[in-house]
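Quick one: structure tokens for this chain, please?
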Amino acid sequence: SSLWTLDFALCERAAATAIELAGDTAPTAAALAHGLLSRRHSFGGDLGATTRHARAAADLARRFQPSARSVPMFYAGLGLMWLDPGLALDVLHQGLRLAEQQGLSWSQPVYYQGLASAAFDHGRWDDALVYYDTGRRVSEELTELGEPSIDAFMGIVHLWRGDDATAAAILDAALLEMQQPYARQGSLLYVSWLIAHLRAHAGATGEAGAMVLEAFELADGFGAANAAVVMAPDGVEWSDRTDLDRMIRVTERVEALARLGAAPAQQAAAWRCRAVVDERPHLVIDAVEVLDGTGRERHLPQTCLSGARWLGAVLSNTSPAITSTSTRSATS
């Protein structure tokens, strides 16, 4: 519970204690603790620690199947998404199979949410939508709450594919879910991202950019800036240059996260931000190159589009304003 209430210090202490006490006698507790630590370090941006704990959680879950009750494979899969979305999908599939074998119907929607998120990052959007729909159907059968952050990701997919009405409908449903008593308030970060995309699509790019920068700053204030690191370039690129000081502050935080985690997606985000604030479009080429071959196919076309916009702006001597229409065209 300390992880989801964003009390990261308590989460780290409790998880470390659980691992120490568990030893070899309580693999379920140890697997869950490693999984939670993986998620915690992912929020903070230390992706080396994230990956180590993710692999430990997955290994324990494979060797001691009862530990699947604590959904460690879910946390392991999320932890592996940063460096290898394809492997993350494999681990999440393994976790889903374990849950099905053990009759853990309550945990299956969780795995489908993880699969939808991993497929979203991997650029496998048809698969993401199938996982999403399946997870929602199972959740409704079990009368479980949905996950608004996954709703937001799928809304962005529909928006980029030109289905604005479905994206808006998904946003309405996500906002309704956020009003429920036990909704995960951290999901508001990604719901805000969807709102910003819809506003940018409507032409209010400056307003959209300010919203994303504010969301990033809020996450940073809770020690979870890395949860918003891939959103930050949208905020910087959309924002008006009258907000340059704020754009620079966010860029510097993204660069700090890139130095800490050293993941291609973090580095690409940092270069995209720096390209805007320093007006150095060639940095986007570096961002494209660092992402190429990493499996994060969602970020690669978006980054290519950013470079194309900059090139067009240089040739026409205008500001590289971003629109969802051009995003959809480039992604297609």
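The CA atoms of residues 119 and 244 lie 34 Å apart.
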